[in-house]
Write a structure and sequence with these properties.
This protein is of the alpha/beta class and 495 residues long. It has a 5-stranded mixed sheet with strand order 1-4-5-13-14, with no helix packed on it. The chain has a 4-stranded mixed sheet with strand order 7-16-18-17. Strands 12-21-22-15 form a 4-stranded mixed sheet. A hairpin with a 6-residue loop joins strand 13 and strand 14. The radius of gyration is 26 Å and the shape is globular. 43% of the residues are buried.
Length: 495
């Protein structure tokens, strides 16, 4: 019986071009020298390393960080896979003369590569054969789905998805780069409503280069929240973290009739737990005189980091990680979803109790600015059906490496704003990006049962539960409740 094999097309010609490749990547190059030293330690000849190294660099757009990951394991795996494929192709050719073999144009080693393949790959969805692949002698991996860009070109950078576990299908959702109104949410964006004190119309170029902070900096006490390098200032970041960790030490506002404590069956309201008046970032916008490269326009320019969605090994389902080193204060992404009223979210939860949900996020960071908040102004974001990469960010208790911060951009209305994620410390390439949902795992009175946490933190708040099999955002299950879904069930819970 003939076999369908992944083989190199014209592999011999690749080997014959070794001299040209070595000329392009001379051994005296420090990066090449270190890579060759590692492969030589494993008994791999240079003539086997160089063609694969060239191909990996070509598909990785020259990103050496991807070649060096895990002490050059990605490179070694690719070399061994090429050799295995070459043997299979030669053996099949001798044993199946006259029969057609399935030959794929790009090398098999690059289709079933180590999970560190970059988001810069230009190929479309790749589904690799499901048989175990052998690398490094006795190590076996099952490589399943790979999508080169889940954003479908809607972001300025490609964001790949990889799954070498193969235990779950690729999540179904519509990727959107900006929030969209579901139906009844009141979101009034109008240039006419932006007054002089809400913009810096007389500024030019980069506001951060001016001698005096512009009008937009008033939200951050007359100082810009961002550095000239585009990072969030450490002092501002530390204050936001303290507000999240010690909310009772900061001012709160209390609703007379709190939308989050509404009983929809009885039409009554419960006692308001209080809403923290959080620190905001005010970015320049279209009515401002500065240009789009102004240092006070970070979140609105979208994702710039190299990110990857992957299936975790710790039982948390899908997660999000970085493919590059990130300094403290780096903007990662915005939490994007459908803008719903709290009433619409309640109705959606009742109708979809048997389906998987991501966490909704309540937009209540400054409800104190609204005298009487109407139902259509009590808003939240739900990324279940439509969302971006933020829907894959997993929870981690206490020592998460990201924080969510409110950002005002196109409207001065405080019942709507953007939720942006920034790194709380330096993050290394391939580290998972995590966020503390501020879930109270011991709150037995809440109608929505919290997931079982397996974040792995030494300060995990769900340690009492043994045999935990934590759920990721994708696996979160929302059940119908008589009480309105509120901050006790969402990521921005205050206690």
């Amino acid at each position: 019986m003939s076999q369908n094999l992944f083989c190199f097309r014209n592999f011999g010609s690749v080997e014959s071009d070794l001299d040209m490749q070595q000329a392009m990547l001379p051994h005296k190059d420090e990066k090449v020298r270190k890579a060759l030293e590692k492969t030589r330690e494993l008994g791999i000849a240079d003539e086997k390393t160089m063609p694969v190294l060239m191909k990996l660099l070509e598909e990785a757009d020259g990103h050496w960080s991807l070649i060096k990951l895990d002490n050059y394991t990605a490179l070694v795996d690719a070399i061994l896979s090429v050799e295995e494929e070459k043997k299979q192709c030669e053996g099949s050719s001798n044993g199946n003369r006259g029969k057609n073999l399935k030959v794929i144009g790009s090398p098999a080693s690059l289709k079933k590569t180590y999970e560190t393949r970059s988001a810069s790959s230009g190929s479309s969805i790749q589904v690799v054969q499901k048989q175990p692949q052998i690398s490094n002698g006795d190590r076996k991996r099952k490589y399943k789905s790979r999508i080169s860009d889940i954003t479908k070109g809607s972001e300025s950078v490609k964001i790949s998805l990889v799954d070498d576990v193969g235990s779950e299908a690729v999540p179904k959702f519509t990727y959107i780069p900006h929030n969209i109104v579901y139906q009844s949410a009141y979101l009034h964006v109008s240039l006419a409503r932006i007054s002089d004190e809400d913009c810096c119309a007389n500024c030019k170029g980069n506001c951060l280069s001016a001698d005096v902070p512009c009008t937009c900096a008033r939200e951050t006490s007359g100082e810009y929240a961002y550095t000239k390098e585009g990072l969030l200032k450490e002092k501002f970041l530390d204050t936001c973290l303290k507000m999240k960790k010690e909310p009772d030490t900061f001012p709160k506002v209390y609703c007379k009739d709190c939308p989050l404590e509404k009983d929809h069956d009885k039409g009554t309201y419960g006692k308001c737990d209080g809403h923290l008046i959080r620190k905001f970032i005010k970015e320049c916008w279209r009515k401002c005189g500065c240009d789009m490269q102004c240092g006070n326009r970070v979140v609105q320019r979208g994702i710039r980091c190299e990110l990857q969605v992957y299936f975790t090994q710790e039982g948390k389902g899908w997660g999000l990680r970085t493919l590059q080193d990130l300094p403290k204060g780096t903007f990662i992404c915005e939490y994007i979803g459908e803008v719903l009223t709290n009433t619409e979210l309640y109705d959606r939860n009742v109708r979809s109790s048997s389906e998987r949900h991501t966490y909704p996020v309540t937009l209540d960071a400054d409800w104190g600015s609204e005298k009487d908040l109407k139902d259509e102004e009590a808003l939240c974001l739900d990324a279940t059906i439509c969302g971006n990469v933020a829907r894959f960010i997993n929870h981690r208790c206490e020592d998460a490496n990201m924080i969510d911060i409110p950002v005002e951009i196109e409207t001065p209305d405080r019942h709507y704003y953007h939720i942006a994620f920034f790194t709380l410390r330096d993050v290394k390439a391939m580290d998972e990006l995590t966020w503390d949902y501020m879930i109270d795992f011991n709150d037995k009175s809440h109608p929505v049962k919290a997931f079982r946490c397996c974040c792995g933190s030494e300060s995990c708040r769900d340690r009492k539960i043994e045999g935990s099999q934590g759920k990721s955002l994708e696996r979160r299950r929302i059940v119908p409740a008589k009480k309105q879904q509120g901050s006790k069930a969402v990521a921005l819970k205050r206690k």
